[in-house]
Amino acid sequence: MHKYSTKQIVRISLLSTISFILMFLNTSLPLFPLFLKVDLSEIPSVIMLFTGGIYGAIFVSLIKNILHFAFSQSGGVGELINFILSASFILLIHFFYTKTKKIKISLLFSTIIISIVSAFVNYFIMFPLYSIVLGVSKQMILNLAASFNPLVVNIGLYFILIIIPFNLVKFTIVSILSYNIINKIKGVLIK
Questions:
Q1: Exposed/middle/buried for 83, CB within 10 Å: 0-12, 13-18, 19+?
Q2: CA-to-CA distance for 38 and 71, rounded, in angstroms?
């Protein structure tokens, strides 16, 4: 079992709180349907990864989603999807960083891969759970996406034109901001 110092527990708590608050500061992107929102709540997890390790980073993501569950409009499905994608993103960054020791390369590769992984998570987890928990069918989601982008005529195009590009933009923003913050605090917090 990994033991945490008081300083690490305080850091996890603080970054989890910041991450939780950032979930509420979300916005839609002009080229995507309104039901897709960009928030920057992964940034504290990325910072925790480089200042306190992989377990702390996963805890930050888990805690923010547990806290956000109290305000869920998706019956917890949105929080589950957010946790899966956030944790996967963190694990990918950790994997690439251990191989390359380069933060920028790790963020770049992780952004590309998580954007593709998001399509699988949506197909195999989100669609079935939305149907069970909220009674929202895959076709209803496709119709909503098609009302915004008429080129979305099937599930494949939904992923190619909506989900993968949206997550590519979202995680690129998260990566750029995380990289800039990490560079500013590197000498202070990173071992």
A1: buried
A2: 17
Q: Are the beta carbons of 128 and 172 closer than 8 angstroms?
A: no
- pLDDT per residue over 118-163, tens digit each? 999 999 999 999 999 999 999 999 999 999 999 999 999 999 999 9
Helix and strand numbers (H, E) in the chain are 9, 0
189 or 22, higher pLDDT: 22
- Give me 68's structure tokens: 């956000």
Bridge partner residues of 27 (DSSP) = 38
Choose among 59, 35, 54: nearest CA to 126.
Answer: 35
Element (H, E) at 104: helix 103-121
Q: What is the pTM of this model?
A: 0.92
Q: What is the pLDDT of residues 57-77, one digit of tens each?
A: 999 999 999 999 999 988 999
Burial of residue 112 (CB within 10 Å: 0-12, 13-18, 19+) is middle
* Cα-based distances in Å from 53 to 3, 151, 177: 12, 43, 19
Helices 103-121 and 77-100, packing angle to 10 deg = 150
What residues does 38 pair with on adjacent strands?
A: 27
* Chain segment 11-25, per-residue pLDDT in tens: 999 999 999 999 999
